[in-house]
Amino acid sequence: MNNTDNSTGRPLEPPFPAEYSLSPPSPKLPSHLLNSSVVLLPGNAVIPNTSLPTYLATELSVSRLNAIHKHIWLAGRTGNTHALHQQKMIGREICRTEQTDLHLVWLDHSIFIKPLAPFLLDHDFFAQHICLASSNLDCPLSESLFGAACGLLYSYAQLIRHESDFHIATSQHLLPADLTWQQWLLLSAHLHLSLPTPSIIINKRYNYGELRLSRLNLIMRFLAPSPYRSPVRGYYVNYREYGTFFSRKLGWLVLVFAYLSVILSAMQVGQVKGVKAFDDASWGFAVAVIVALCATLGLIVAMFIGLFLWKTLGTLTEQRKRAREKRKRDQQEKEKGDWEESRGSGKLGAVEV
Fold first, then answer.
1. N or C terminus: which one in the chain shows less Cβ crowding within 10 Å?
2. What's this model's pTM, rounded to 2 decimal places?
3. Do 285 and 263 contact (CB within 8 A), yes or no?
4. 3-state SS class at 201
């Protein structure tokens, strides 16, 4: 394979020189696993039952954000990434996530940040498995594995700008344990030079910084292309109980009806004057509030029933799927046992003859 940049024709290279590479020791496996289907990554990570290209593509994927890229401006601004010490200053809690498309997504007082995998800082690994895998592709370089990896590295160059940011990152286990501040300082400086933003190199998701989760949920429910659209779940569901869902989604209704109660009480006092027009308006407003209240309660009940049925049907569907898979495995094992038994009987008959 010709390892070239498909936009300039120059060879693809890691976005940092070899002398800045962090090369963790190679993991050592027990002898009984050496010939098994496992993949070893720098940083003592063992990936079972998968191929390395598949793992890397899944590990760095931001395909959902790329699918809604033309609407992503609704959820964030370009280049809007606060350093880690600034995240602390505005009261945000750092939540580690291994889901790359949640990296730099925030909600309320929390922000998701994906820890930086050691293999992304290994120059030899980057050149062999990311640069090579991204060469001679039909898609733009920014949409390749190379663009996703460079984008994640660039986001860390934005997050860690001061030594205080580095200490926050290490305390939160966002960086490899053996990486020093001096190493990061040199590496970050080179990343800033080689990966400007906006750039045709990094994945277009990383031209944007922090993204608001509530807006992403709305985009995914109503504006996303059909393969990605999810009217119920949205982009990411961060609740696991019905009570949490209703308190977050419908809490504003309590404030609305509190204001309406004050207005109705004021109208009731105003009716003492006996002005017919005011009395008629108060009566109409009271009826409208009662209708709105009943409609809202009906909608809440309908939402609860809909969510309950959706989750119940999903659970039953998953159980039936697992039952079918189990019956299929049992049938295959039975056929295999029958075949081995018939084969053994045939050999025994040949010996007796």
1. C
2. 0.73
3. yes
4. coil
